[in-house]
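BUG: 3D viewer hangs when loading the predicted structure for this chain

Environment: internal workstation, default settings.
Expected: structure renders.
Actual: progress bar stalls at 90%.

Input used:
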Amino acid sequence: MAKHQDIRLNKSLGQHFLNDRSVLSRIYEAILACAGNLPLLEVGPGAGALSALLQDRTDYKLVEFDKRWVEHLEKEYPLLKGKVIAADFLQLDLQDVFAKNYAVVGNFPYNISSQIVFHILDHKDKIPLMLGMFQKEVAARICAKEGSKTYGVISVLTQLYYETEYLFDVPREAFNPPPKVLSGVMVMKRRAQDFDIDQQLFKQVVKLAFNQRRKTLRNSLKQLLRDKEVKGLDLFNLRPEQLSLDDFLNLVKLIATQK
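Structure tokens produced before the viewer hung:
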């Protein structure tokens, strides 16, 4: 493991560093299995526990917001010299990182985990794979299916473009210092083909539906329902968490084809 005892962790950035070798090996093996020969962008490498395993890759870059860790990484791992981007991932233009498509990996900062996923969705055509560790609650929400209490906007919007899978739990004891929340590793794989759907309308429908998730769709989507026959369908008696991705696709097509 890298020596970094002289650098104090920044709690405001959610810095809890993974130092369990067995967990790191599982994440590394999952990256190798899923990413293949894709270039890799590691987000939030911190002290470099995962970077130490990935540093030999040719097409590999890292983005780190905390300048102290940028200096540490380049000093501790000479192979990373020139590969570390000192920037805020959420402000980074993901189209310019590599000339070709690439995977985003990492032990992601928990305080911006949802924003990370939505930033990737904005650049989905460049990023066929994302794999890494989030707060378990967030990872479970992204991978959730209909009928689950955690199923919501981020579940449906992510799964419109990616197949998602929750891989494994990571115990608190694997970190220094141990976080108060549980952690989990998940993967997002880009769908081979996009659905034929009005994407902006899809996003609007999903957000309106879940913003009032206790109401039936007839009530939460009333501003979009013009056709009496459509409005009278049994589908609109349901609540959003009862609808699968296919159901939402059909719902949006119904709304789009109203007279």
